[in-house]
Write a structure and sequence with these properties.
The structure is a homodimer of 205-residue chains.
Chain A: H1 4-28, H2 35-40, H3 47-52, H4 55-73, H5 83-96, H6 105-118, H7 123-149, H8 158-179, H9 184-197
Helix pairs in contact in A: 4-6, 4-7, 5-7, 7-8, 8-9
Keywords (chains A, B): DNA-binding, Repressor, Transcription, Transcription regulation
GO molecular function, one term (chains A, B): DNA binding
Organism (chains A, B): Halopelagius fulvigenes
């Protein structure tokens, strides 16, 4: 085990490499990215990248985990909120991103969606995305189940509903990024309300 | 105008180049593709590619239009079918692809989704996709409007509904390809039925 001081230094360094990777990816895109582009975004010598990571592929996998962690960690929901309120909060966070200053939700999502599509050729990235997708989907499925238990939602296949909402969010983000439909998240929010969540409420009769 | 014989030859040649491009893209992916890879997939000399297309970018734009045309042209719907039947047929075609032998729906969709995500960096491809997306979305929106006029669907924002269904289909295909969820189209079909279309039917009371 490394002494506490060293461990902190290493964490800071890795964070600096991750942020440099993010800036380099935003500029050059995944397929054209070279290790030296990442080095150009850092104040430290680029030897530290090679010290910490075993090539571009290793670095990219770690980077994917890094942005997924930021994304998931950003969802803050009151555990005592009513199910519909929690559902709304989770959908909003995934659609619009956290309101952190400098978080750059859409810049990060641009990289995220590029790596997502690229995962069709990449077993390791596919696994990282699958784990992440499962967590996002489950968090929505669980709220639907809570609502059913509390009698505020009607009985549905909660996993199927969770998957549908997760897919719709993903598509709206992808469409904004790929096709430039800037109103896609807002419009999708309304569609989810009107066409999906509306039918979820338990019939009061 | 070229004499009829020549025109046919040229169309055949372009078709041969398009199919060679498709095979090369399936093997190498978009970002790694070189013109010579396409030449390797052809029986003709690769000079004909340079004769017909002004570089990789021009060829890729034309190829994108080619697979979109195949995709859209494959949707055959009886214009006198009841709205719900037509809606089902359109959703099925987009989700599962046409049943042409050798069409290779998923191989083509793999390329389609790769180019779609890449369009975030490419104004011309973005425009081609936007036109295509608009046609797909409108075809669904129009069926919803027909159903409303005939009184079998309740009054909704038909364009919003058309967009939602288009997004859900796109997400399901993308998830199957990127994450290997082979049951995504079938599961999504059920989710569309249960959670979106069910609420579309006009209340018989």
């Amino acid at each position: 085990m490394s002494p506490p001081g060293e461990e902190t230094a290493s964490t800071d360094t890795q964070e600096a490499i991750m942020e440099a990777t993010f800036r380099a990816l935003s500029k050059h895109g995944y397929s054209e990215l070279r290790m030296r582009d990442i080095g150009d975004e850092m104040e430290m010598t680029r030897q530290v990248i090679h010290y910490h990571f075993d090539g571009k592929y290793d670095l990219m996998s770690r980077f994917l985990e890094y942005i997924i962690q930021q994304y998931e960690g950003s969802v803050e929901v009151d555990p005592d909120a009513p199910p519909r309120e929690e559902l709304d909060a989770r959908i909003d966070q995934c659609l619009f991103g956290p309101e952190f200053e400098d978080f750059g939700h859409w810049d990060r999502m641009k990289v995220y969606h590029e790596l997502f599509t690229h995962a069709q050729n990449d077993e390791q990235h596919r696994e990282i995305f699958n784990d992440h997708y499962e967590r996002i989907r489950s968090s929505i499925t669980e709220v639907v189940e809570d609502g059913m238990e509390q009698g505020v939602f009607r009985e549905v296949d909660a996993a199927r509903m969770g998957q549908l909402i997760t897919d719709v969010i993903h598509a709206a983000r992808g469409r904004k990024l790929a096709l430039g439909h800037d109103d896609a998240p807002q419009e999708t929010r309304k569609a989810i309300d009107e066409f999906i969540l509306e039918s979820l409420h338990a019939d009061p009769r």
